[in-house]
Amino acid sequence: MKVLPSKIPDILVIEPRVFGDERGFFYESWNQRALAEQGLQAGFVQDNHSRSQQGVLRGLHYQIQQPQGKLVRAVVGSVFDVAVDLRRSSATFGQWVGVQLSAENKRMLWIPPGFAHGFYVMSEAAEFLYKTTDYWYPEHERTLAWDDPALGIDWPLLDDAPKLSGKDREGAPLADAELFD
Question: Which of 18, 72, 124, 169 is 20–30 Å from 28 (CA)?
Fold first, then answer.
């Protein structure tokens, strides 16, 4: 596996080594030893799988208590994946990283605890998998406003307005959000 840095050093883009021929392909999507050798040490406790239609934006979600690290990837379709640094003590506080993840490029993104996370579906549909370092606790879940001008996220929207859940429509702007130290 190849680990590439992003503009926020704690966010890592992971490119697996893909073996393919006329029959199809094979790759390791998680190898604890190989990734630990490159600095990514995480113990995962939960796997999640979602399917969304084109134009759906999910996020930006985080857990204020028992924060989750996430290893994310798209196995069907294509998404624009975003992580926002919510650690007040970080030199990159309030900054974001956006990466296209797709079934075709097979890239994964490591998002450590302390970040809000979301994605926008660019293909007709997308299936999105993610491993988490802690369990989901709905009482601790928070939503950051996906369109907060203070963040300036350059979402590659296909239409004027993404399809949002009620929770995602009511996300807090960074100035009002609960943050990490």
Answer: 124
CA dihedral 99, 101, 106, 112 (to 10 degrees): 60
Catalytic center residues: 61, 130
Question: So where are the chain's domains?
Answer: 2-176
Rounded Cα gap, residues 144 and 59, in angstroms: 7
Look up residue 7 and give its two tokens: 């503009």
Cβ-based neighbours of 89, under 8 Å, separated by 6 or more: 181
Q: Calculate the CA 62 to chain-centre distance.
A: 10
The predicted-structure confidence for 62-103, as pLDDT tens digits, reads as follows 999 999 999 999 999 999 999 999 999 999 999 999 999 999
Class for the domain spanning 2-176: mainly beta
Q: What is the pLDDT of residues 145-162, one digit of tens each?
A: 999 999 999 999 998 899
Residue 171 to residue 42: CA distance in whole angstroms = 28
As a whole number of angstroms, the distance between CA 58 and CA 107 comes to 19
